[in-house]
Amino acid sequence: MMTTGGPRVGGPGTLNQLFFDAVERYDKPNALQVKRNGRYEPISHRTVLERVRRVALGLQELGVRAGDRVAILSENRPEWAIADFACLSVGVTDVPIYPNLPADQAAYMLRDSGCAAIFVSDAAQAAKVGSVRGNCPALRQVITFADAVANADLTLASLETRGAAVDHDDRRRIYRERALAVRPNDVATIIYTSGTTGEPKGVMLTHDNIFSNVQAACTAIPFTGEDVGLSFLPLSHIFERMAGHYQMFATGTSIAYAESMDTVPENLVEVRPTLVLSVPRLYEKMYARVLDTAMSGSAVKKRIFIWARDVADQWANVVLAGGTPRGALAMRYRIAQRLVFSKLKARTGGRLRYFVSGGAPLAPEINKFFYAAGLVILEGYGLTETSPVISVNTPSNFRIGTVGKPIAGVEVSIAPDGEILVRGPNVMKGYFNKPAATAEAIDADGWFHTGDIGELRDDFLSITDRKKDLIVTAGGKNIAPQPIENLIKTNKYVNQVVMLGDKRKFPIVLVVPNWDTLGAWAATQHIPATSHADLLATPAVRAKMEAEVMGTVQHLAHFEMPKKIGLLEHEFSIERGDLTPTLKVKRRVVDRTYKSLIDSLYAEPVPGGRATSAGAAAESAD
Question: Is domain 13-34+41-215+239-251+272-277 classified as CATH 3.40.1160.10?
Answer without folding.
Answer: no
